[in-house]
Amino acid sequence: MKMKVLITGATGFLGKHLVKKLVELDFEIYISNTTKANLMNVENLHVYDNIKFDYIFHLAAVTKAGDYCLTHQADQWLSNQMINTNILSYWKNKQPQAKMICMGTSCSYSPGMFMTEENYLLGEPESSLHTYAMTKRMLLLGLQSIGQQYGLKWLYFIPSTLYGPGFELDDNHFIFDFIRNGYNAKESGDPWQLWGDGEQRRELIYVEDAVDVMINLLSCDNEVFNLGSGQDYTINEFAQKVCEIYDYDYNTLGHDMTKYVGVREKKIDTTKVMSYLGEKGYNKTSLQEALRETVKYFKKQKEIKI
Questions:
Q1: 4-26 b/e (C-beta count within 10 Å ≥ 16 → b)
Q2: What is the pTM of this model?
């Protein structure tokens, strides 16, 4: 009998990759998004009351990259608290046999604190990301509380920035901005300016690698896992790697020192997940290979739209 899975945020970037992989593994997929079983009202989920899920993947979240968190604190708080509470209550009341798998965010870590799972709820998140970060911390507390009181099973994953083919062309996470900017600079001669001095450090994880890790850890119960590559680079270094793929002169890039840059450094500790899966079961795709696949996807989409 096929495993039955409910996925919230199924049509988002991570959701599309997860659905594809689970279909390949012969899982039976049901979805929740803005049009089907919308999480803003828990009553919408009752369409699935007659199905007994083996897993619920809660990927849905209201957020955007860049400076969105600075100007939409209330929207993020109200919407994310609503959808998180609705899916958790539905799990507890209607699907207690299912294992709940939720996505956190590395933004919830306090700047300057070692980003290991034990520190996720400690300290204060970066001020500009505080509201969204705290809703993700509350999501973990909800999992832990419900799991402890009612004996339910769960997992919580904390990814670094996900990237790869399949992203929305207007997604403004920095790496997708770089891919767009590199294309426009190469094809149209548009100027390309990096935000800040470019020495802020970031970490990426290829979305297909992240999905594989999540699936490989499904047998674990009531655990928190970081999902990162274990390798960070400066913004300048990421830009240089994208320039190499486009065969574009990196030295022509400028820097806009007036722009928002966020925390200076963000790299999560992968010791725990590596201890569970080992080197061969983790980070299968090199940064350069993954960037090439992502650029290839973007160029193809541009050709289709033209």
A1: bbbbbbbbbbbbbbbbeebeeee
A2: 0.92
